[in-house]
Amino acid sequence: MPNEGPILHADLDAFYASVEQRDDPRLRGRPVIVGGGVVLAASYEAKACGVRTAMGGGLARRLCPGAVVVPPRMSAYSAASKAVFAVFAQTTPLVEGLSIDEAFLDVGGLARLAGTPSRIAARLRREVAEQVGLPITVGVARTKFLAKVASGVAKPDGLLVVPHDGELAFLHPLPVERLWGVGQVTAGKLHTRGIRTVGQVARLGEAELVSLLGRGTGRHLYALANNHDPRPVRVGQRRRSMGAQRALGRKQRSPQELDAILTALVDRLTRRLRGAGRECRTVTLRLRFADFTRATRSHTLREPTAHTETVLETARRLLAAARPLIERQGLTLIGVALSQLDNDAVQLTLPFDGTDAGDLDNALDGVRSRFGSSAITRATLLGHDDGPSVPLLPD
Predict the structure, then answer these.
(1) Which end of the chain is more exposed for a tag (fewer CB within 10 A), N or C?
(2) How far apart are CA 344 and CA 306, in angstroms?
(3) Predicted confidence band at 220 (pLDDT cuts at 50, 70, 90)?
(4) Percent of the chain predicted with pLDDT > 90
(5) Which helix (H) or strand (E) covers residue 171, if one does?
């Protein structure tokens, strides 16, 4: 029996920064920061100095004074992503994209045609380097979770195979933060109990984890700590949520500025929602504060909607409720997520007055599709920079 799992997790290294280094030979081997006001990406040379994504540009330049700061080129990143996904498609028809720079691939049925998963992974890395000119790290394992952990450990520009008989020996010494779903708050709860490794989570037992973290989180982490992850690689699966966020840096923002940023995020998201023929029921506001703590506020609507004003009104109420917290702790990131997505099947409501609240949305979508997203905007957004439009996988 083969000792290698069939699942590959392929993840491009420092994607935006790597594209810049590929396209400008003068940047190779040098610390590169993409984005000036807020760091959108950093090369590994810059990361070695402590620079991180979403960090304020001023702090990043102080940490790495020799860094080269370049403006983002979203069209170049989108083209590079399409080229990489073309290589994925040449490798196997079973590709599940996670973002524009990472995907799961199932190569379990290719043994006679292409060899072992490790050989396929090595060839994939070579072809991405030769055809696209970018470094990519690949993890190989029996489950999606472990393949993703393996690629994270192997970065940058690496290949790591976790054999069946070495899964727990590889997984258990790792820090608890490697488990999906363990953020700062959950890690803090585990640390207070002296739990710092995945192996300690597994030995604690499911009942105690449920008591400490709640039923859903406790059972989820216990399963992952024992490498129980039955999810297959799914092709063509539609998103279960859509989100957009804006890093703010350390600059204090007025309520009017925050409202303008929130409005731009909602405008962008609801246009995506309608373009995909979807509607949402739950609106979630995501906040990150100056001390790096996070908070979310959400509201579920009575009926699914794709109307911009309905979503915006809900997001504004959530922001207003969080304002005392923002004033105390300082806001460094704001985001909006739309979930409980349905296909576009509108439930008509009484009275039928002959008007459609979506007419304005549809007219604006038509103008922007024909003349560009900046062809028409709200008066309140004039003069406001709503940040770069990040390339995305299809919705």
Answers:
(1) N
(2) 8
(3) very high
(4) 62
(5) helix 167-171
